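Case study 2.
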Amino acid sequence: MGVGMTSPAPTGPAGSSPSRRRFCLRTRVQFGLIAAIALATLLATWQFKMAGDSYQDAVAEELKLHAAVQEEARHVYADEAPLAFRVAAATTRAEALQALKDDGRLAASEFYLAEQEAVSLRHSAAPESIIGTDQYLDPRKGYDVPRRLAHQEERTPGVYRLSPDKTMAEGDSWAAWGRVSLAVAGAAILSALVAASVLRPESWRNPPSTGRPRRFLRGVDPIPQPATAPCAHRRGTWMHLLVVLLLFLLPLLQLAAASGEQRAQAEASRQALRLGAAIVASGQRQAFLAQAVTASQVADIHAAAREAAVLYQEDTPGAVHERAVAAAETRHASRLRLTAEYMGRPPGVRDGVSSASVVALRARPEDWPEMRAEQNRQKEAADAAGDRGLYLAAATALALVAEFLAAAFLESGRLSRMAWPTAIAALSLGVTTWTMLG
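Prediction:
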């Protein structure tokens, strides 16, 4: 190397200068943050979609399950149980009069009528019905209606194995992962805000000119950089950055609001289905129990009337026999009351009945206001989430307008008009803050 000659500055690979490489790195970081936000948003969208599918599946399972509960309750308590109680009543009446049938014509006639009623009804019943077999018959208590209901449920085991609560929990798990993805996207947005605000050397702020045509996207700042903007444009660029990040943030909040609305709607639907099943199923059981208890009371009234009819008669063989029949009928009425309570008792899990049927059949009218209140609470939550999503969509529209105006005024250098996008962005931020806090 001759005297007075200097070595050329190192250019690195492909003749690129270090300042150019640093500037390209800055651009790549910006695009990397945007890609992270986009990927996290897409992942959250898919996860919330899976959560919504699970919520809808839970509603469908609830509908299928409680439709089966209502149908089986109607069949057992409205179709079979009344006839079974009549057979049980005739059988116990015949047993009560059997010891007196040889003492007089009255007892013999009543015994024969009761016995023939029980035998005829049982013989004419289908073999698979509750009175067509002795497997449900307790000689002292009557027919085991809850066990009959359990056997009816075993005909469709797949329906009663449905677990809407478990399906809802799966949806909640997907929604939790969706919120994790939203948190990742939020962290990327925060990183973009911080990175755009960090001061950098002058050589990083603008790409050195090489006199060659610039590649596509080289030198483009997809995220506004107030730290490298000229002093006159720095305040406007700051506002522009906040608007851009608000546009990144608002879709994330809308995703969360939509997921909350889906869950609340599903829960409200499930509560409505449960309430309807409880009213129908428990109503069938209560109606049967009330009819059976009334029948026992009528039997007691008949026994008392028969005893009163011969109370002041002379102690003739016929009067004595009739008093004995009245006493037997009184004992039968007491036993019939126990039969009514046994057959109409609320079922439990020990009877083999599904938990859904147990809850529905054991429900009482005083429980219904609380169930309605829970349904209304979930409906109000769904309405609130829907309103939240609507207001966030309005805030997004305002932020888009502010973004277009800010980009146009900054590009044209009309900084005096930046008050317009600033005011619109402030309105968008105010709507967002009011919506989230409200």
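Residues 253 and 392 are 7 Å apart (CA to CA).
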